[in-house]
From TrEMBL, chain B:
Family: Belongs to the ORC2 family.
Main location group: nucleus
Residue stretches of biased makeup (Low complexity): 322-331
Keywords: DNA replication, Nucleus
Protein location: Nucleus
GO-annotated biological processes: DNA replication initiation
Species this protein is from: Chrysemys picta bellii
Domain of life of the source: Eukaryota
Protein name, as recorded: Origin recognition complex subunit 2
Length: 624, 683
């Protein structure tokens, strides 16, 4: 900034990534921070509000006047409002306004707010945020920059460009003559994946919130994120929807709350709710594993059931506490491995553990094998991290684990001194080798050495490493059991991924096509049952008309279409052409045909065409 | 895995058509699992013998090999001629798999040999039983074919090997695997939920198709008409007219069209692009008896004949099929080259679109003596039509209605709800409104109404809901005020019901932006319906996140009565009363001479109403007539008069091919007759 020329406008280029929907939040907090710490004059502009330079200035002035009202006392509100309408929006008036405002604030209040900024600026700058720089028309941007660079002496101005693509876009949008008026500093925001990781970390991988997502649901949400929009907001929306769905559809979600509260609520459960608990698949599994007297008690006595439920809920809570700690610990191990067999992100690991017993998977096997090849210093560093994780965790039952890990660490420490000794031995033997030049002896000692190596294949370090890995493996096996195996998991886990998918990631075209192509899917009537690619002639009119139109090329002759339709329909009704009422029937069929065709038009399958009389054009698949 | 290329082809095609619907059902799993229908019986005397075992080309199976393409027309004894799934060209081995999957279960073509195409080579084509195909597709190795069909197995093995070669391509395989994973996770829902599950196979919908013969529709219609008892076997006694016309049509061929016979057969068998076909048939235009058909449709007519002929041939004996298959190979090398170049999807698309000529019959509704119905009679007639599937429809509706309370909850939690699926959702929304929104402030917007605008929606909010008086400079200002008021006062609540959010008037970007911003307010609850197939394309990511949609599939199958009544439907006659009154009003304000000029034109127009190729009255002719009737004295005065007419949209001018200016009255004949009669009365 010190090298900045006097006429240059300081500009921040903010590269935010393609997840456009999340930008709003970023900008909102950015302008709040700016308003709190730097300057009250923060203006954010969107491309769609500013089709021309005039609109841009209007918006700019409007927002500035508003924030000036916020700063100033309320008496002046009216006069400001009036002046806002009167003032012609120009840069000159802007600078005049700025002069008056700064003079006022400068004299009245030495301003608490602007203390920090006063280091750089004698007076608070005007910050203009272009939220979506790429969407602005180049002319508007260029004009604004050129004009404001002329007035930069009258009031300090700072620009912020929000960029979704790459910083190169600035130079593509602005010619050199314009961009040379800017002094651009580049800022890179965190990638959306990191934001997602934070969200998952804070929302899902914690015992703080009782509500949990099952593996499938989480998978769906992550897939929507990765394959569709990279939008953290949408991920949160999906999460919200799952919360809604869970509490709406699961009657036992009443117990999905903090443990103490849940225990209280268990006591007040009605008989029906108890029955609900009894019908949970996980609970039934639990009952089956009990002795028969207890089984009967569980199934008949509500009070006993409530008691057991309380302990089960507590177990579930403890399971979660352990689970997340051990998961983080395992994650520390897996991220150090080449190729990340269990995934790089903790969310992948979480999914793997949630769904099924992770230790039975192939990936886990290769992970363990790779772990057995870790170097010592790596292993020590990882163990230290694990100790930290365990210490910081709330679970008390990990004190043993921590002790054990610390013991491992100590042994590694000892190992260092031991290995020195071993090295001494080998050095010694080497010296012996050099000493005795007798061929026979040489051979003998070499053989001895070889044998000793073979037998001592496992050094102490290797033994220890095996022990460590086995210990971790035992931790995984005892604490990372899949959630579905836990009794009463249905209370806190939302697992109908289908609903989520239907409502968030719907496929309206496929639904429409299915309905038209195979009405049996919806209308469960036996007469509609038909082969694939074929349609029953009793199907609704629109289906028949649709089916017929699929056989046509780009243009469809309405007369042919009508005739084909009436052939099909009359065949159903079994009316012979000689019957008396043919004319009337014909009329009705005609009317039905008209209705079906105009429905297809409404649905966007055809449109009227002027190319030929009485023809319509196909608009969809294969219409070429 | 032999299935991979087929699936890949389908997905890739689908991807370009439906980018947002990737969660679709590409998997054809459900289809493959269906029990295979019985092996079709061979027609003629060979009843009962499975076609797959017939030594050479099965009866009714026509295949033509022409420069890189295999064109196949299948004849299925049960369903008539039909080329389902194999209509398109087979491009390389990859497509074979696709075709086999796509092919109809009744007729199965094992076109697995001879893709290296040589002149005079006939494609060996035969039917394969369903189980076999199923096995080839589902088996990983695909080699476990029953031993007793050794001959077949040999071919299959070769085929499978080719497929394996293809899947060796690492990148592609990888890509496909990923795609499959994705489908497994996102798309699988469709399979396990009953709703989207079956049918909707991608390949069939999403592939570009080569232009079809227009006779197809009639064919399909008769085929559909026959389906009710689906196990009806093809019995020649049921179709007495078909054999009857054989001699006639063949006679025709032998008598008049003998020289062109070859080329025509050629064109029949193959579904070559239109341009090519046109070139082939250009010299052989038929000008005889069928006055119904213009030049461009003559060949299609012939095709119909051809179809019939082949039907008969097949019914009779099966030897001709061999000779049938031969002609295509007689193409000149130049043509072959040309075709090879276009053996690519994209090129095929443009090929199909490049020719402006369309191949449809020239019949018009007027000739059919079908008078256009007006809205009222249409409604009356429709009421007479018996409603179908009432019980099922009711059940569907009940399913949807059970969701009402859930919708209400979700609306309150800040989501917006969009309903999609076939059938009018108006009644459903109305029911929702009457049952749950009776005591709350709500606004119903009939999006299908042709003159609805965003402005009118905003106006009703400001005027009716917010009781605001005053006008606004722009909708944006209005929106700002609404947003401000709703933010200030959290007790304000508004339910916005929009029928057809995707209607012509509301689908514009600006309208959607404004509506989305409205929907983003926490105390405005939006529930809307969409019908158009491309409706979701209205929204970009930013708008979608503003709307905060939750999608609900509500297929109702109920007719779009209200929605289409405003659509100026092609077939519904506009009552014309409006046009008539405006006509009389405008003309009454004109001089008598001007009225005379218009009368003259109108009369001429009516005289020519039966002439479909009536171009209009040329300016020179018109001037002559007007002069003779002492209405104008120079062409300048006439021109001035015509300008006036044109300004009032009473006439239209059009330049003919010869550069002459033609005058037309863009009012339908009925209205014009009424007008003239009224004029006569007045005079």
């Amino acid at each position: 900034m010190c090298r900045m020329k006097s006429s240059e406008i300081p500009t921040a280029a903010l590269v935010l990534g393609v997840n456009v929907t999340d930008h709003d939040v970023t900008f909102k907090s950015l302008s709040e921070v700016l308003q709190d710490n730097v300057t009250p004059y923060v203006v954010s502009l969107q491309a769609k509000e500013c089709p021309g330079i005039k609109h841009l200035l209007q918006k700019l002035m409007g927002q500035l006047m508003d924030c000036c009202v916020d700063v100033d006392s309320f008496e002046e509100e009216e006069c400001v409002n009036i002046s806002q309408k009167k003032i012609r929006c120009s840069m000159a008036s802007l600078s005049k306004w700025y002069e008056s405002v700064t003079k006022k604030t400068g004299s009245e209040t030495p301003s608490k707010k602007i203390t920090s900024s006063s280091r750089h600026w004698q007076s608070p700058p005007i910050v203009v945020i272009f939220k979506d720089m790429e969407s602005f028309t180049t002319k508007v941007l260029q004009d604004f920059i050129v004009i404001s660079s002329q007035h930069i002496h009258e009031f300090p101005l700072v620009l912020i460009f929000g960029i979704a693509t790459s910083p190169m876009i600035i130079h593509r949008l602005l010619p050199h003559s314009v961009s040379s008026l800017l002094c651009i500093e580049l800022f890179q925001s965190l990638s959306c994946k990191e934001h997602l990781a934070t969200v998952i970390d804070k929302l899902l991988l914690t015992t703080q919130f009782p509500f949990k997502l099952s593996e499938k649901v989480l998978q769906v949400l992550i897939n929507i994120f990765l394959y569709h929009d990279f939008s953290v907001q949408n991920f949160i929306k999906g999460f919200q929807l799952s919360v809604v769905e869970h509490f709406y559809s699961q009657p036992l979600s009443v117990l999905c709350c903090q443990l103490l509260e849940a225990k209280k609520r268990v006591n007040s459960l009605s008989h029906n709710q108890c029955e609900n608990i009894r019908s949970l698949p996980s609970f039934r599994r639990y009952v089956e594993s009990q002795v028969s007297e207890k089984q009967i008690a569980l199934l008949t006595e509500d009070s006993f059931l409530k008691e057991v439920t309380q302990t089960l809920l507590e177990d579930l809570h403890i399971y979660h506490e352990n689970y997340f700690t051990v998961l983080r610990c395992l994650h520390v191990f897996t991220t150090s491995l080449p190729k990340y067999p269990l995934g790089k992100q903790i969310r992948e690991l979480h999914c793997a553990c949630l769904g099924k017993s992770v230790w039975e998977t192939e990936e886990y096997g290769s992970t363990v094998q790779l772990l057995r090849m870790l170097a010592k210093d790596e292993l020590v560093a990882i163990l230290q991290k694990c100790v930290e994780i365990f210490i910081s965790s709330s679970g008390k039952q990990f004190s043993n684990t921590v002790e054990k890990l610390e013991e491992f660490l100590a042994r590694f420490q000892n190992l260092e001194t031991e290995t020195n000794e071993v090295q001494d031995v080998s050095v010694l033997s080497q010296k012996e080798l050099q000493k005795k030049t007798d061929l026979y002896h040489l051979q003998k000692t070499l053989l001895e050495l070889k044998e000793s190596k073979r037998s001592k294949k496992l050094t102490k370090f290797e033994m220890l490493r095996f022990e460590v890995v086995d210990f971790i493996d035992s931790l995984v096996r005892s604490y990372l059991a899949p959630a579905e195996m836990q009794t009463l998991n249905e209370v806190v886990y939302f697992n109908t991924a289908n609903t989520l998918r239907e409502h968030l990631n719907a496929a309206p075209r496929i639904a429409l096509h299915t309905a038209l192509n195979n009405p049996y899917c919806y209308l469960k009537n036996q007469t509609l049952k038909s082969d694939v690619g074929c349609i029953s002639n009793t199907a609704p009119d629109i289906c028949i008309v649709y089916k017929l139109h699929l056989e046509c090329g780009r243009l469809i002759n309405l007369v042919d279409w009508l005739e084909a339709f009436s052939t099909v329909v009359t065949a159903v009704e079994g009316t012979d052409p000689d019957s008396v009422a043919t004319d009337q029937v014909d009329e009705i069929i005609h009317a039905r045909f008209i209705r079906a065709v105009s429905e297809l038009e409404l649905l966007g399958f055809i449109k009227p065409s002027k190319q030929k009389t009485d023809h319509v054009a196909r608009l969809t698949w294969g219409g070429c | 895995m032999p299935l991979v290329p087929a699936r890949a082809a389908a997905t890739r095609l689908g991807a370009c058509c439906e980018p947002w619907g990737r969660g679709g059902t590409w998997g054809r799993g459900s289809r493959q699992l269906q029990p295979p229908p019985p092996i079709p019986r061979a027609a003629g005397g060979r009843a009962g013998l499975p076609l797959a075992e017939s030594p050479c080309i099965a009866p009714g199976c026509k295949a033509a090999v022409a420069g890189g393409r295999v064109h196949v027309v299948l004849y299925c004894p049960e369903r008539g001629v039909h080329s389902c799934g194999l209509r398109g060209a087979l491009r390389g081995e990859q497509c074979l798999a696709a075709c086999l999957v796509n092919a109809c279960w009744h007729c199965r073509l094992s076109a697995m040999s001879q893709l290296e195409l040589k002149r005079n080579q006939v494609l060996e084509a035969r039917f394969v039983a369903d189980e076999d195909v199923l096995k080839h597709i589902s088996d990983n190795g695909g080699v476990k074919v029953r031993k007793d069909r050794a001959q077949l197995a040999l071919n299959v093995k070769r085929f499978v090997k080719k497929l394996e070669n293809i899947s060796d391509d690492d990148d592609e395989a990888q890509e496909i695997m990923e795609e499959q994973n994705y489908v497994a996770v996102l798309g699988a829902c469709a399979e396990d939920s009953l709703r989207n599950g079956p049918s909707a196979g991608g390949g069939k919908i999403y592939s570009f198709q080569t232009p079809k013969r227009s006779g197809k529709m009639a064919e399909l219609a008769s085929e559909l008409a026959q389906t009710p008892g689906r196990n009806v076997t093809f019995d020649s006694s049921e179709y007495p007219e078909k054999p009857a016309c054989t001699p006639q049509s063949s006679k025709k061929y032998s008598a008049s069209n003998k020289p062109q016979l070859k080329s025509k057969k050629n064109e029949f068998v193959s579904t070559t692009p239109y341009r090519l076909r046109k070139r082939l048939t250009a010299p052989s235009l038929r000008s005889d008896s069928e006055s119904d058909y213009s030049a461009s449709c003559s060949e299609e007519e012939e095709e119909d004949k051809d179809h019939k002929e082949t039907c008969d041939v097949i019914l009779g004996q099966k030897t001709p099929s061999k000779t049938r298959a031969a002609p295509p190979s007689k193409k000149t090398p130049a043509k072959k080259l040309k075709e090879e170049m276009t053996s690519n999807l994209v090129e095929e698309y443009f090929e199909a679109h490049s020719s402006s000529k369309v191949l449809t019959s020239d019949r018009t509704l007027q000739k059919l003596q079908k008078r256009k119905l007006d809205q009222q009679t249409l409604l009356v007639l429709l009421n007479k039509a018996p409603p179908a599937f009432t019980a099922e429809l009711k059940e569907l509706n009940q399913q949807h209605e059970s969701l009402f309370s859930k919708w209400m909850l979700q609306l309150h939690l800040g989501f917006s709800i969009v309903l999609y699926g076939l059938g009018s959702k108006r009644d459903l929304l109305e029911k929702f409104r009457t049952s749950l929104l009776r005591d709350s402030v709500h606004l119903v917007v009939n999006g299908f109404f042709p003159s609805i605008t965003v402005r009118s929606i905003l106006n009703s909010i400001t005027e009716e809901v917010l009781d605001h008086v005053g006008t606004f400079r722009s909708p944006m200002d209005q929106l700002d005020l609404i947003m401000k008021r709703f933010k200030e006062d959290s007790s304000l609540e508004l339910y916005l019901l929009i029928h057809n959010l995707d209607s012509k008037m509301l689908r514009g970007d600006k309208s959607q932006q404004i509506l989305a911003q409205l929907a983003s307010l926490p105390n405005i609850h939006l529930i809307a319906s969409i019908d158009h197939i491309n409706a979701p394309l209205m929204w970009d990511q930013a708008k979608q996140s503003l709307y905060n949609w939750l999608w609900y599939e509500t297929t109702t199958f109920s007719p779009y009565l209200e929605e289409t009544s405003y659509e100026n439907s092609l077939l519904v006659q506009q009552s014309g009363s409006l046009a008539l009154s405006s006509l009389t009003h405008v003309l009454h304000s004109l001089t008598p001479n001007a009225r005379g000029i218009f009368r003259l034109l109108a009369q001429y127009h009516l005289e020519n109403k039966d002439n479909p190729s009536y171009p209009g009255l040329s300016f020179q002719d018109f001037y002559q007539r007007c002069r003779e009737a002492f209405l104008v004295n120079s062409d300048l005065t006439l021109r001035a008069q015509l300008t006036e007419f044109r300004d009032h949209k009473l006439i239209r001018t059009k330049r003919g091919t010869d550069g002459v200016e033609y005058l037309l009255i863009p009012v339908d004949n009925g209205t014009l007759t009424d007008f003239l009669e009224k004029e006569d009365e007045d005079m």
